[in-house]
Write a structure and sequence with these properties.
By secondary structure, the protein is an alpha/beta fold. About 40% of the residues lie in helices and about 15% in strands. It has 16 helices and 14 strands. About 45% of the residues are buried.
């Protein structure tokens, strides 16, 4: 099939590259001339495990192309994916200006039937608005389909190539056949293609992300309570996760969720409810609790130092909102940096992928280390904000020689508490026993 993907952000680039991997001819469109030129030269603009290999292979085999010319990209395309930004507005609602702007252009360009697919995460009713924007100028038949993505950053290639399910919202039998043929290679193992109406498909994405965000936030609250009453959140997590009605995933406590999806999508669903006259009380609480959770480790640090961080220096491991990505959108590390610097502390950070993005954002507000251990030289303590695998089995002896004090504040519970007993380290994590330096208790 000939496919056009409008927008080469995270979703658009993964979508286009993975469709080309199954033999389709894909043209990706972006208005950023410099970005398009770099991609034409084989430079991938984002970090996502395994994406670079597919990207390079399909460019080489001439199945994946890039352009700034929308008209030429869609000319022979049977399916046009809209993978455009839907940033939150001041009220949290999704801003559809980019989606509707391209829809307006498409109406003037269509010369034959095409399927236009909303791949971006959009509020309920967007497919109708996109259809109306195209229809205002179109002189040929077309269909608008909702096909939300369910891609986890760090696992996006596997999620696309081997999806748990594919959700397609359309009431058109013609569009249903086209989309079914397009996705057939991805569900050969029997995972379902779920056809439904457009509004239900749009809400499915928001509902899924809101539920997962709620599950994470619930566990963070349980962890905070464990800190107060002396329970161990790891044991609680295992105890409830063995219940098949609950499941083991998304039960790891930490310093809150971030990224491009959960914060934005949960806020957008909350605002959509308000627009429809409905108050999502649970979702409202999720957002408020998550905002607090991003600073829960800072409160532990302040308490440890008697409330005075002036002149303290901290090594920070992790800047991305999660491991295996360079995405720093709504990353808890950024909130902690702001709070610690405001309190008079200095930060030297290391992250395997996200440092260039943070440097663009923060400049010299913090220091940047060449390696993980370099960040610890002369630091009062280590702070862990992202669960990169490279941080999971460090050389504690080497750390001891670099840190002023043997102190670790772990926002991702990377280490077993028991390993610090009698070690002389002061170790604090989320929802588990605090190990005091010196006596191991």
């Amino acid at each position: 099939m000939n496919i056009a993907v409008v927008g080469t952000g995270y979703v658009g680039l993964v979508t286009g590259t993975c469709f080309s991997e199954t033999g389709n001819n894909v043209t990706c469109v972006d208005i950023d001339e410099n970005k398009v030129r770099r991609m034409q030269e084989g430079q991938i603009p984002i970090y996502e495990p395994h994406l670079d290999m597919l990207f390079e292979r399909n460019i080489k085999q001439n199945r994946l192309k890039f352009t700034t010319d929308l008209a030429s990209a869609i000319k022979d395309a049977q399916v046009i994916f809209l993978a455009l930004p839907t940033p939150p507005g001041d009220d949290g609602a999704a801003d559809l200006r980019y989606v509707l702007g391209v829809a307006d252009q498409l109406g003037k360009m269509l010369t034959e039937y095409k399927v236009i697919v909303d791949k971006s995460t959009v509020p309920v009713g967007t497919a109708e608005r996109v259809h109306a924007a195209i229809a205002a100028n179109a002189k040929v038949d077309f269909d608008v389909v909702s096909n939300p993505e369910f891609l986890r950053e760090g696992f996006a290639v596997d999620d696309f190539l081997k999806p748990d399910r594919v959700v397609i919202g359309t009431t058109s039998e013609r569009a249903r056949r086209v989309m079914g043929d397009l996705y057939k290679p991805f569900v050969r193992q029997g995972n379902p293609i779920l056809f439904m109406d457009e509004r239900s498909a749009e809400l499915t994405k928001y509902a899924a992300n809101a539920f997962l965000a709620t599950k994470i936030t619930f566990m963070n609250e349980i962890a905070n309570f464990c800190d107060l009453v002396g329970a161990d959140v790891d044991k609680v997590r295992i105890g409830i996760g063995s219940d098949t009605r609950i499941g083991k995933r998304f039960l790891f406590p930490g310093i809150g969720f971030g990224g491009s999806c959960f914060p934005k999508d949960v806020s957008a669903l909350l605002q959509s409810g308000q627009d429809a006259g409905y108050q999502f009380e649970i979702i409202d609480a999720v957002l408020r609790v998550n905002d607090r959770q991003k600073l829960v480790l800072v409160e532990k640090i302040k308490r440890h130092y008697g409330g005075n961080l002036q002149g303290r220096k901290f090594g920070l491991w992790g800047l991305a909102f999660k491991a295996d990505t360079d995405d720093i959108r709504e990353a808890p590390a950024l909130y902690m940096i702001d709070a610690l610097v405001e309190a008079g502390a200095a930060i030297v950070a290391f992250d395997p992928e996200a440092m260039p993005n943070v440097r663009k954002l923060l400049g010299d507000k913090i220091g940047y280390a060449e390696g993980a251990y370099d960040a610890l030289q002369g630091a009062d303590a280590l702070i862990i904000a992202t669960e990169w695998s490279v941080f999971r089995t460090p050389d504690f002896g080497r750390m001891e020689g670099l840190l002023k004090e043997k102190t670790i504040f772990d926002g991702r519970n990377l280490y077993d508490v028991e390993q610090f007993e009698g070690s002389g380290f002061h170790y604090e994590s989320i929802g588990r026993q605090r190990i005091q330096s010196g006596n191991g208790q």
